[in-house]
Q: What sequence folds into this?
């Protein structure tokens, strides 16, 4: 054990980048919880695309969507970045935007066979992810990660805690930042945000204990006439700083989670 007098300015939460408005640090595990259809996958996709554009190894392992669906969403997000929520986007500008994140790794996964160990090996052996060093891995979603017990694959209700522990171990071992979407109990879909705590996550108590940070994405009022939706980001847990609340707007037509600083662009579009 090191003596405290010999420890010189430890910085366990030294952020290496901010992607889609969220800062990340090596070895950290974040869970992004929400009801279905709120925009979790799209936000994760924007995070990894921005990380890749900044030169970091970045991947989205997705148990929910095909590679074609994810590529389509990336293109729609590039249109949003260029032209806002609804305006027509210049094709050349969109291609230029997409080229910046061309190193983004998209992994469509099977919840019957693609374990975390298999994902780790694929990223290090086939995509040049560092054996140890800054990289971003997003997993969509936690309860679909295959976890094998004594009697075979665990069901989704049982996987949450074990998968969270495995992801935290992976993050610490590799020095990667890991973020995973997490399902919540159906009884909480329409609950008041003040009723939420870590027990809302599907899985045993480790589903809430293991992560360094847990964010909840929830509706903030109704949808706008154009279909765009105001959302709140609530911090349920954060070992790196204080709890807080932020806003984003989901531009559904283009699968784009617009940050607080971008929301004003919505009203500048022709259909806003």
A:
């Amino acid at each position: 054990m090191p003596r405290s007098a010999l420890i010189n300015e430890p910085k366990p939460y030294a952020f290496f980048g901010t992607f889609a408005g969220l800062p990340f640090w090596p070895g950290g595990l974040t869970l992004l919880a929400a009801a279905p259809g709120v925009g979790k996958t799209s936000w994760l996709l924007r995070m990894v695309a921005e990380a890749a554009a900044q030169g970091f190894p970045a991947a989205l392992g997705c148990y929910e969507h095909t590679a074609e669906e994810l590529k389509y969403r990336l293109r729609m997000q590039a249109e949003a970045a260029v032209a806002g929520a609804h305006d027509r986007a210049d094709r050349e500008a969109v291609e230029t935007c997409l080229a910046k994140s061309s190193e983004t790794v998209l992994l469509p996964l099977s919840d019957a066979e693609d374990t975390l160990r298999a994902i780790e090996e694929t990223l290090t052996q086939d995509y040049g992810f560092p054996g140890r060093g800054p990289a971003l891995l997003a997993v969509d979603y936690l309860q679909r990660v295959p976890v094998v017990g004594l009697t075979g694959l665990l069901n989704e209700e049982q996987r949450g805690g074990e998968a969270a522990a495995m992801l935290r171990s992976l993050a610490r071992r590799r020095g990667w930042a890991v973020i995973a979407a997490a399902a919540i109990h159906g009884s909480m879909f329409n609950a008041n945000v003040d009723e939420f705590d870590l027990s809302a996550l599907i899985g045993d108590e480790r589903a809430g204990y293991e992560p360094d940070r847990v964010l909840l994405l929830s509706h903030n009022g109704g949808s706008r006439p154009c279909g765009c939706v105001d959302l709140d980001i609530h911090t349920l847990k954060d070992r790196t700083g204080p709890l807080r609340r932020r806003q984003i707007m989901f531009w559904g037509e283009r699968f784009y989670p617009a940050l607080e600083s971008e929301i004003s662009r919505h009203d500048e579009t022709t259909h806003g």
User: Anything to note?
Assistant: The chain has a mean pLDDT of 91.
